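Bench notes, bay 3.
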Amino acid sequence: MKCARSVLLILVLLAGSLSPPPAGAQEAGYVPQPEEEQRDFVLEQNYPNPVNPETWIPFSLDPSLYKEDQPVTVTIRVFNILGQSIAIPEAVEHPNGRGTRILNLEYAEPGRKIAFWDGKDTASRPVPSGVYYLQMVVGGETQTRKLTVLNPRNRRRIFPW
């Protein structure tokens, strides 16, 4: 009896979380329109995620960003859940060399780029396990991604043995 109630409760909760179909979806000849946003830059999901202890952050810069052969300024930061900036990842392949922080860093060519974060804050201390946010700013526009850090040094033991 308890199992049937649990299943019923789950079904009711699922039904309440479903969104209604778009207007006109039941009319003959309805073709859904893709809701793809054209982005001039894309902050992709970091890998590996969860971070343990370091991660790679791919991002792309579209040729449409480059006007009159001017370089594009990019900033990538890592924020904690309180919104405090705790780290600035490094550029992997940049003319200034590996290890250059991506803080108002200029890129002269479009394409796919990669950043690296060692899982440490600006004081070179390993960040504690938890949820963090990657934020990329290009030309006043912002994209954000969530990442998780699993730091084995700070992980509590669940079992006493």
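Next record in the batch:
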Amino acid sequence: MNTPEQDHENLRDRAARILQAMDATPIPAMDVNYYAHYLEELRLLVDEFLAGAPDPSLTGTRVWLMWDCADLIGSYTTESAARAEHADLQDQLRTDYGEGAQPLDSLTITTAYVSTSCPGQARTDQ
């Protein structure tokens, strides 16, 4: 069985060969079949490459981050908690500045995956 590095290198070599073959083809020989063939070859290589990439959801925990412009203002373990806090902040704005206060467009929610595995030796309770 190949290591991931060997598979990745093999993928690089195969992609390089396809690109070299495309470059070596004389312009008069380029037609619809030429493009369809090489497009399909490259698509298969990309599919194989993406299939080999680890799914981030398997290597970490998903969190929802709330930002005010570039400042992180909160981290939540569920989307509903992040959305509830977002609504609470908008309500606080209306409470502080009156019903005519415009909602803050600078408050945004993004997602990220945080690694949940601990590097090094696992600890055991004794």
